């Protein structure tokens, strides 16, 4: 299940903090948002409903813990994007970005290095394509 940009900011706070109370999440987000405590608690509740976090009781307060690792979430989101917009294929995505975004020489060098690494990997050791369904 996909999460909203606001929910992803709350998850980023939890990934950075580890298991935390709502107050700790609020303090972490205070410098980058003007959200009220009620808004943050609503976002936490939505994330629980979506299976992104769990809530444990600790005395009189609740502790929120991420159930999904950040890397797993990123893989799901990017795979979904590839499936929806590019038929699960990475080359059309890269072509789109190369036409619509200015790629720096550094960006191009990083892409070239990645491709070289993928080409030189032993057969059967390359990672599965993130856009392909299982």
Word description of this protein:
With 134 residues, the protein is mostly helical. The chain folds into 2 domains: 5-66, Orthogonal Bundle (Arc Repressor Mutant, subunit A); 89-122. The protein is 58% helix and 10% strand. It has helices spanning 5-17, 22-29, 37-49, 70-86, 90-100, 105-120; strands spanning 20-21, 53-58, 61-66. α2 crosses α3 (37-49). The radius of gyration is 19 Å and the shape is elongated.
Mean pLDDT: 89
CATH H level, superfamily name of the largest domain: Winged helix-like DNA-binding domain superfamily/Winged helix DNA-binding domain
Look at the helices and sheets and give the structural class: mainly alpha
Oligomer: single chain
Strand order of the largest sheet: 1-3-2
Summarize the biggest pleated sheet. Answer: 3 strands, antiparallel
**CA distance, first residue to last residue:** 16 Å
Helix content: 55-70%
| Strand tally | 3
Question: How many domains comprise the coordinates?
Answer: 2
CATH level 1 class label of the largest domain: Mainly Alpha
Under CATH, the topology of the largest domain can be stated as: Arc Repressor Mutant, subunit A
The total count of helices amounts to 6
In the predicted model, the low-confidence regions spanning at least 5 consecutive residues are 130-134
Overall geometric form: elongated
Beta-strand portion reads 5-15%
Order of helices and strands: HEHHEEHHH
CATH architecture of the largest domain: Orthogonal Bundle
Radius of gyration: 19 Å
